[in-house]
Design brief:
The chain is of the alpha/beta class and 241 residues long. The chain has ten helices and six strands. The protein is globular, with a radius of gyration of 16 Å. InterPro entries: AB_hydrolase_1, AB_hydrolase_fold, AB_hydrolase_sf.
Length: 241
């Protein structure tokens, strides 16, 4: 069975995927990773480039003996997934790019990367985690899944927050999109305030073998807002090929 590797986004963690792991357990092996500086790996030195994150994921999978896998990346993790797909294309079966884009400066985001950097320095990591995690949900901090999601985000270190913002701001994968050879599913919530439609359209228009699934009434954390719908879309994509 080809495993599905799940890469979380900025201030995320492997624990955010618990609902997907449970839903897919009968049909897929799932490997959910904590990136350095985040989640259970918040003790590791932070990484400051998307390429560096991709190299870390590849090395981690090699260490585990995983040489063939499907790959899902969420948000910043979707940028990392694009880099992994370029670095080791023959190792990847299907690619899922979820609530992400190819332009790291995040045009149209609820606030600029520079604003996030400045506020993170002023507010500190925990307040930053709670504030930004609220933007991932259509109902903000009132969303049922927000408390658990914010608790995971709070594990991010100040250095990891700064490093992640630097990594996104300095990265662009736009010109490389047409060379991605994989069957690619693009998932997006139509209320996402982090990645606007233009970013999603850029992926869909330029990745040759891509499909688009728009989840209605969802923001940046559709897998937590409407997990049954998200899991159905994901299972369908992995099963039909």
């Amino acid at each position: 069975m080809t495993p599905l590797v799940m890469v979380h986004g900025f201030m995320g963690g492997a624990a955010q995927w618990d609902g997907q792991i449970a839903a897919l357990a009968a049909t897929s092996d799932v490997i959910a990773l904590d990136l350095p500086g985040f989640g259970a790996n918040n003790h590791l030195a932070p990484i400051t480039t998307i390429s560096g994150f991709a190299d870390w994921v590849i090395a981690e999978l090699q260490q585990r003996g995983v040489t063939r896998f499907h790959l899902l990346g969420h948000s910043m993790g979707g940028m990392i997934a694009q880099e992994i797909a370029r670095k080791v294309p023959s190792q990847i079966g299907q690619l899922v790019l979820y609530a992400t884009g190819a332009i790291g400066v995040l045009p149209g985001r609820f606030e600029t990367i520079a604003q996030s950097k400045a506020r993170a320095k002023t507010d500190g990591p925990k307040a930053t985690a709670r504030r930004i995690a609220a933007t991932w949900f259509g109902d903000g901090a009132a969303a049922p899944a927000y408390p658990a999601c914010a608790a995971i985000a709070e594990r991010a270190t100040a250095a990891a927050i700064a490093g992640g913002l630097d990594a996104m701001q300095s990265w662009s994968g736009e010109t490389a999109l047409p060379a991605l050879p994989h069957d690619t599913l693009i998932i997006w919530g139509d209320r996402d305030r982090t990645y606007q439609w233009a970013q999603i359209a850029l992926l869909w228009d330029n990745i040759p073998n891509s499909q688009l699934s728009v989840l209605p009434g969802c923001a940046h954390a559709a897998h937590l807002e409407k997990p049954a719908l998200f899991n159905m879309v994901l299972r369908d994509h992995l099963a039909i090929r």
